[in-house]
Amino acid sequence: MCQSEIVLECVVNISEGRDHKLLSALDVACGSDLLDRHSDRDHHRSVYTLVGEDSVRALATLAVERLNLNDHEGAHPRLGVIDVVPFVPLTDSSFDDAIRARDEFAHWLARTHGVPSFLYGPERTLPEIRRHAWTSLFPDAGPRDPHPTAGAASVGVRDQLVAYNCWLDTGTSLDIAREIARRVRQPGIRALGLAVNDRVQVSMNLISPFVIGPADAVRAVDDVCHEVGCVIEHNELVGLLSERVLRDIPRSKWRWLDVSEERTIEHRLTRRG
After folding, report:
1. Under 8 Å CB-to-CB from 114, ≥6 apart: which residues?
2. Residues near 229 by Cβ (< 8 Å), separated by ≥ 6?
3. pLDDT confidence of 77, banded at 50, 70, 90?
């Protein structure tokens, strides 16, 4: 199979969510390979959903040039301005294709910009990198120390996941949000309780979305909310989800769960042509 036939998704997490002019410039750098951008000024983070391998390098180049981790403040933990770069196999591509793309990008980032990368996938998980980076774990590619302004990147390979937030009602404490996150955490759900200005949320990665999707995750959060005395005010899909995940959700719940046909990877790929 030639590389032009391989379709990989890349979901780049950039440590910038506030400067609209700069975000527009980052959008332009991605060209027609940009399927979606979700920006959050409180997290100070943007999630770029891209297709292919060229646009992620263009996005990374501009991010390194224009962003400075030393000036960054936001609710979401981060290691670098190009914080997380997972490659995801889609149509006519395999996990091996994604691993090749991951490794080539990590070495390109080190060679071109001097930014080190931690690799995740078969070797380790992203949470393991967040826990151990710079203590017992050092970069797999590039310098041993962080780039002075860009920090480091976590470059990985994974199957499709769904990034999802449950916002809790005003007055709910961070301790309660963290307790809810702890209790809903399971093999298919990674969860954090985060403070965002005067609000709190349970921020989740649904890493087995064909088994545990948004409806299941929200139900799990809601069950704990009833026990601890708070409610979900609204839900938020971050980025895109697959059509298969959407079809498993009753249409009557789509609006409450912040999902739709237009928010699927397949719809955006078709629109891109």
Report:
1. 142, 143, 147
2. none
3. confident
Read off the tokens for 32.
């027609």
Structure tokens at 27: 């959008």
Distances from the Cα of 219 to the Cαs of 81, 209, 216, 248, in angstroms?
Answer: 34, 14, 5, 14
Grouping H, G, I as helix, E, B as strand and the rest as coil, residue 87 is: strand
Question: For 268, how many CA atoms within 13 A lie in the half-sphere containing its CB?
Answer: 20
Domains of the chain: 3-157 (3.30.990.10), 162-272 (3.30.70.670)
Residue pair 46/21 in contact (Cβ under 8 Å)? The answer is no
| Rounded to 5°, angle at Cα 178 from 173 and 179 | 95
Tell me which H or E stretch contains 163. Answer: strand 162-168
State the Cα–Cα distance between residues 129 and 124, nearest whole angstrom. Answer: 8
Return d(Cα 175, Cα 64) in angstroms, integer: 35
Residues contacting residue 53 through CB under 8 Å, at least 6 positions apart: 8, 10, 87, 101, 104, 105
| Dist CA 189 CA 3 (whole Å) | 33
Q: What is the pTM of this model?
A: 0.87
Q: How confident is the model over 116-158, as pLDDT tens digits?
A: 999 999 999 999 999 999 999 999 999 999 999 999 999 999 9
CA–CA–CA angle 205, 207, 211 (5° rounding)? 120
Report the relative pairing of strands 162-168 and 199-206 from DSSP bridges.
antiparallel
Residue whose C-alpha is closest to residue 242's, from 215, 216, 268: 268
Split at pLDDT 50, 70, 90, the class of 173 is very high
